Amino acid sequence: MKHITPKSIIYPGVFGLAVMVVFAQQSSPDILADFSNSWNNFVSSGQMVAMFVGIALGYLIRMFTSY
Q: pLDDT per residue over 5-21, tens digit each?
């Protein structure tokens, strides 16, 4: 059995860029719950209001500065 060293895990990839192999990567299979949690956080933290204010201000600035 070959001994795994850090040098054998990190190897030069495409165009000489270092690529690191990630073992046992785990992910959550419930994508809809993750999206729902993200959306609820987006709304409850006030970021949605800030987005609409930014869109409105950007539109007004564009109207006043265009010919």
A: 655 555 555 655 666 66
Q: What is the DSSP letter of 2?
A: P
Name the DSSP letter for residue 16. G
Any idea where the domains of the chain sit in the sequence?
29-67
The answer to whether 6 and 14 have CB atoms below 8 angstroms apart is no
Contact indicator for 36, 30 with CB cutoff of 8 Å: no
Residues 6, 20: Cα–Cα separation, whole Å: 10
Backbone angles phi, psi at 39, to 5 degrees: -65, -45
Identify the helix (H) or strand (E) that includes residue 20: strand 18-20
Half-sphere exposure of 15 (CA within 13 A, CB side): 0
Cβ within 8 Å of residue 21, ≥6 positions away: 9, 10, 11
